[in-house]
Amino acid sequence: MRRVHRSVQTVSGHYHNQENTGRAADIDEYKNIAVFIEQRGGEIAGVSFEMLGEGRKLADRLGERLLAVLLGHNMEEKAQSLVKYGADKVVYFNHEACAEFQDDVYGELVARFIRGEKPSIFLAGATAIGRSFIPKVAAKVYGGLTADCTKLEIDVEKRLLLGTRPAFGGKPDGDHHLPAPSSANGHRAAQSHEAGRFRRKPHGRSRDRSG
Fold first, then answer.
1. Residue 82's domain spans which residues?
2. What's the CA gap between 120 and 74, in Å, rounded?
């Protein structure tokens, strides 16, 4: 057993668009769970804490790390606070262009985060902001997106992410099986989740994890 080092990485500087190089992904490079942290006016949305809680459970079952990505400006203390909610690493993009939601800026920076950190699973809230740009991020880096999930589970043996989403009329539509990196093109699975479906709970920092 070892104590996992938890950190906040701040990325500052001039924002500029970076095109995808089109280089084929090495699927063996992808691991860990990542969560998009939504903020409005410098305040972190409650759904993001819910996603951290669910992401923490998935990461623990897989024996992997939980990453969080936050875009904003002058939010250093808020970025640091995410560690209390289970994040092993926080990547914080600090720039004036990130202070308020901008579809193209957020889409490019989140895609850049995914290409750099290479998480196998990416979670985001199914809010107005999440619905606006997460599908575009999925198109850039992922092969699939399941929206409006009400339940998350993981098949550890098969490394399948299982998401339950409602069908018409609000009844459960069953499990959607989304594989962790296993295909030749390196595509992963992204999901978005309805606010208020999961519990928001701080996570103890003294926890020891193996890995």
1. 7-11+29-193
2. 29
Contacting residues for 124 by C-beta, under 8 A, at least 6 apart? 35, 36, 38, 51, 130, 134, 190, 191, 192, 193
pLDDT in tens, 15-28: 444 444 444 456 66
Residue 203 lies in a domain: no
pTM for the whole structure = 0.78
The answer to whether position 42 is within a domain reads yes
What does the pLDDT look like over 114-130, one tens digit per residue? 989 999 889 998 899 99
Q: How many CB atoms lie within 10 A of CB 162?
A: 17
Give how many domains the chain has, as a whole number: 1
3-state class percentages of the chain: helix first, strand second, coil last, to nearest 5: 30, 30, 40
Domain with residue 185: its CATH number is: 3.40.50.620
8 Å CB contact between 150 and 174: no
Separation of alpha carbons 53 and 60, rounded Å? 11
- Retrieve residue 122's tokens: 């990416």
